[in-house]
Amino acid sequence: VQLQASGGGLVQAGRSLRLSCAYSGYIFTIRTMAWFRQAPGKQREVVATVAVGGSTNYADFVKGRFTISRDNAKNTVYLQMNSLKSEDTAVYYCNSFRAPPGWGRGTQVTVSS
Q: How does strand 2-6 pair with strand 17-24?
């Protein structure tokens, strides 16, 4: 299994970024996928989830600002992040929402105020 997140960077508050995560491995194609994030000194937390059929859920702190989607044909999950805030600064990871089999390297998002 493999997970490769990309698209992070340094942006000013209020701007946007789009993260992508390419995955390989059968288990990811049949599971709800999620974006997680981990800020320095904090625990990893769920940001958003997307089921195989496309239904989505969001953490309250990103509702209305972030949009998760997936392209099952390309084995890729996306996270469109708008109106970024400094508190969104973290390393972002994608993985299976339940029983993640291991973690990729993630992609760093830094939002300057």
A: antiparallel
Q: Which residues are 23's β-sheet partners?
A: 3
* Closest C-alpha to 50, from 78, 21, 84: 78
Tell me how far apart the alpha carbons of residues 100 and 28 are, in angstroms, rounded to a whole number.
9
Q: Which helix (H) or strand (E) holds 101?
A: none
Cβ–Cβ under 8 Å, residues 92 and 79: yes
30-74 confidence digits (pLDDT tens): 999 999 999 999 999 999 999 999 999 999 999 999 999 999 999
3-state class (DSSP) for residue 87: helix
From CA 30, how far away is CA 45, in angstroms rounded? 22
